[in-house]
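User: Pyruvate oxidase, Terrihalobacillus insolitus:
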Amino acid sequence: MFRTKAGDAMMELLIEWGVDHIYGMPGDSINTLIESIRKKKDDIHFVQVRHEEAGALAAASYAKLTGKLGVCMGIAGPGAIHLLNGLYDAKLDNAPVLAIAGQVETDLIGSDFFQEVDLTNLFKDVAVYRQTVMSAEQLPTVVNQAIRAAYDKKGVSVLIIPDDIPKFEIERGARKTSSFFVQSECLPQQKDVLQAETILNHAEKPIILAGKGAKGASESLITFAEKLKAPIVLTLPGKGIVPDDHPYCLGGLGLLGTKPATFAMEEADTLIMVGTSFPFTGFLPDTAKTIHIDNDPSQIGKRYLVDVGLAGDSELTLNQLTKLINVSNDGTFLQKYQEEMKDWWSKLEEEELDDSVPIKPQRVIGALQQIADDDAILSVDVGNVTVWMARHFKMTNQKLVISSWLATLGCGLPGAIAGRIAYPEKQVFAICGDGGFQMMMNDFVTAVKYDLPLVVIVFNNHKIAMIKFEQEVMGNAEFGTNLQNPSFARYADICGGIGYRVEQPEEIASTLEKALAQKKPCIVDVVVDANEAPLPAKVTFGQATGYARHMLKELFQEGEIHKPPF
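Assistant: Predicted structure for Pyruvate oxidase:
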């Protein structure tokens, strides 16, 4: 048989699995693997990032957007450590990612050698599969196993590859594994379905809470809701499963949510949770009968008391229930909150037309709504921008990517880079606060280097604004939240992109159009009001009294006072 280097065989296998991009930074303990990538550069492209964390975040975003394996790599020691934050983002959002970590040569492991770190323990918590490759012959089999585990467990697989392993030759064609993965579809037990049917048939005020586990089941979800006469509320990861302007949709829930969703959830007598283990249970009903649908039985009843658990595929289970149920409610509950939702949208649309200076952040989202195509990619960073996007942007057929469970600052730009690579013909926007953008802004150069047209919208208020608001409602004086910002527009120009600065509300839409027309990486630096608070849909007594204490502290300790936001 012919022989080939183990590193070359690994790249051939990745290509067979459909991998066409690897995010990373070259370094001495992965140089042989980098050479193997170079040999296959027409089939598998190496995206050189400026920080391994950005590479891991991009790989996670790629996986979230496409459902395909995202791949990142880093050298032994510092490079591997830098991957961790992005890998935790993938873990918590159930995204299939393969991380390739270099390691010192096999005969040096355990000798406290230069850049040697105990990578096995480093990745212990984040990985569904981790393996240190100890022989060249083992490498193809382990790669296959790692990819299967990432897809099966919807998580992170880590391959730790000592520097010498990829150099050795192995027999070409000796592998006996297949490079494809098939998934099963499952239905819940019939006795559980019949129990759920009984509850649904007697529901007077039913409501549906749908999460990202309902993706791919949109039509079935809407058909079920129509027959049940139940409004649909969406978690943040589930935003877009049902169009925001659909007559059955009440928008989001929680601190980022809508007032109709909040009050409908309080009033409901029956809750159907679909593909979500919503963590903020204080926003769920106190006494409602609850049915929980999830294809992972371990998630059912994990955070909230349920009456019936249906362990099955969301689409198949919803279809089954739709055929069975014969509801008795007259739709009054649904109609009430449909009317309230119309009023809610009218209120938000008024905010989006505000001509104030500094610019209201809601005005920026309103302009983006006008400009973004129905199939645009929206990569949203963490912070106040999350609230404005969750509440104001009406999703139609766009794809939204965010760090929903880890909620790590800095995810916006890497997500946009991944979005542009995954969907080169679509509009791509990164929607970032100034704090979040500065976490990963060095990788704007990556977008320039690879000629990736995208538009970064920076909400520039010189504040870590969400934390400012949290401090205020806790009754504390604002402290440590001011930011000393560079000119983001000039930064874009210096990097080789194009930058714009917007200070007047009437300039936002035209500037976004101008940026899109450039077909280059652009930054639109929008000066927004730092005192525009992301108020929850329902302000609690504790939040109001906390803000009153904050005002008194600022008056007596800082000598200033601001008008309360509510």
